[in-house]
Design goal:
two-stranded antiparallel ribbon; 2 domains; alpha/beta
Length: 483
């Protein structure tokens, strides 16, 4: 981050093949868009992927070979034929959903066979196959891709079915195009820079994420807004929640956020998005973000971030702490210097683990919803939010809901939903928000955080000053700066 802007962008994976994606009407090798008017060539062995040119297919063969061999057509019929058999006897309306469920199940067996996790474009070849939107059949191949000529996102076996589905598809077509553009943006590693001069006085957030971003840079294209929102949804959801439930926000000198269930590639562990909170809160002098979860790899421990010149002039501090642990097993010594102002669980999926012997959420619920800080969790849609709340209430029946609504600060980047849950083709990161009420004692504790933080800050500086001069805090690893 610099003094003039915040660098943000769409996440597209961890690099390499993680940035590739799959659309039924876009070349699987080069991902070059707008090819619907040109013929696409189907891989003759697996029938799952298409290429714009035989040369492109040849270049991709070393990457595609092992995945392809799992679904060779000779002797096995290929994955699409297997899906058709699995859905035999179903009506046209049910067939496509059964086929999708069958193909989604192949991800596990494919991963086990390859001895690794599937790359994103491999998963998407199974999740978003070339199966007709109307009848679920594969259909003959002819000129063109057989897909919607505008978005390349859905396949039709014939022109009659394309015309039949036109009205239904129209409500999603623009979102498919935006989704593809966002994927291209991530693949090209494009960055978006927003002007982020510090607010001199506290101002409530705009009504929505899009309006907030456009208030800073009015000429951004929708794909740039979507890319920026993918990074900003995490800090701005936290800010929106605090704005709704904590009267002391505007005058708080210290904030401590606990992000529970954090995972690699989801919540930002770099400084820039979290520093954005400090730019919106003029009085805030110290922000501590604790990311904790069993799926959180990489360097562990505390990192005092290098801030922009404006924040340095105000002598501000931002500490990002990463802990690979279950929340209820988090050692007390590793927690932030002050009690949490707010706990957050982003895209939590509480309900997905119920009944599984590996479900560790109930033990953590005891800490997450039992003391000072309010708890906010996000879900991908309303149905999931209700199931997540029900799962939490089975462990903590007494919790009270303070807010439950579509999150105005969700990401605006559309993500394709292969399940089509609630009839929607798309979902968004942090789409639905639920906030559980904090008790009066908790609210008082949160308001007292500032004084406690200043005292702890002085003690911590004395203990850790020498370690910071060497680039680390004690024996903990230092995370890379994002400047």
């Amino acid at each position: 981050m610099s003094g003039t802007g915040l660098t943000a962008g769409s996440s597209g994976g961890s690099g390499g093949s993680g940035h590739r994606f799959h659309y039924p009407g876009i070349c699987h090798g080069c991902n070059f868009p707008n090819l619907c008017a040109a013929p696409l060539y189907r891989c003759s062995q697996c029938h799952l992927v298409m290429y714009c040119h035989r040369g492109c297919q040849a270049r991709d063969w070393p990457n595609h070979k092992l995945f392809c061999e799992l679904y060779k057509v000779p002797g096995g019929g290929g994955a699409l034929q297997m899906a058709l058999v699995a859905a035999a006897g179903a009506s046209d309306e049910e067939r496509l959903q059964r086929q999708r469920e069958f193909l989604a199940g192949l991800r596990v067996t494919a991963s086990l066979a390859l001895g690794r996790r599937l790359h994103r474009h491999e998963e998407e070849a199974l999740l978003f196959p070339r199966l007709c939107e109307v009848c679920g059949m594969t259909g003959p191949l002819g000129a063109g891709s057989g897909c919607c000529p505008d978005c390349c996102g859905v396949y039709y076996c014939c022109h009659d079915h394309l015309r039949e589905d036109r009205e239904q598809h129209r409500q999603w077509c623009e979102l498919y195009k935006l989704c593809s553009c966002c994927n291209q943006q991530a693949k090209n590693r494009e960055a978006i820079t927003l002007p982020t001069a510090l607010d001199q006085e506290y101002r409530p957030l705009a009504p929505t994420m899009e309006k907030h971003i456009l208030s800073l840079a009015s000429r951004l294209r929708p794909v740039a807004v979507a890319g920026a929102s993918e990074s900003l949804t995490f800090p701005l959801t936290a800010l929106y929640v605090l704005q709704q439930v904590w009267p002391g926000l505007a005058t708080a000198p210290v904030l401590t956020l606990h992000v529970v269930g954090a995972e690699d590639g989801r919540e930002p562990r770099v400084a820039a998005p979290w520093e954005y909170l400090m730019h919106r809160l003029p009085v805030l002098a110290r922000l501590h973000v604790l990311l904790v979860g069993p799926g959180l790899g990489g360097p562990q421990g505390c990192h005092r971030a290098a801030l922009c010149q404006q924040c340095r002039d105000k002598d501000r501090q931002l500490v990002v702490e990463c802990r690979r642990a279950l929340y209820h097993n988090l050692p007390q010594a590793t927690a932030a210097a002050t009690p949490p102002t707010l706990r957050l669980a982003f895209n939590c999926g509480f309900h997905e683990w119920e009944g599984d012997e590996g479900d560790t959420w109930p033990d953590s619920f005891t800490l997450m919803a039992d003391d000072a800080a309010p708890l906010a969790f996000t879900s991908f849609n309303h149905s999931e939010a209700q199931r997540d709340l029900a799962a939490l209430r089975r462990a903590k029946p007494e919790v009270q809901v303070s807010l439950a609504l579509p999150n105005p600060y969700r990401s605006t980047r559309p993500l394709r939903d292969w399940t089509r849950e609630d009839g929607a083709h798309m979902y968004y990161t942090n789409q639905y928000l639920t906030v559980l009420q904090a008790g009066q004692a908790g609210q008082r504790a949160a308001q007292d955080t500032g004084e406690e933080g200043e005292q702890e800050e002085a003690r911590e500086e004395g203990k850790q000053g020498e370690a910071r001069e060497g680039g680390q805090m004690g024996e903990q690893h230092t995370l890379p700066d994002t400047t």
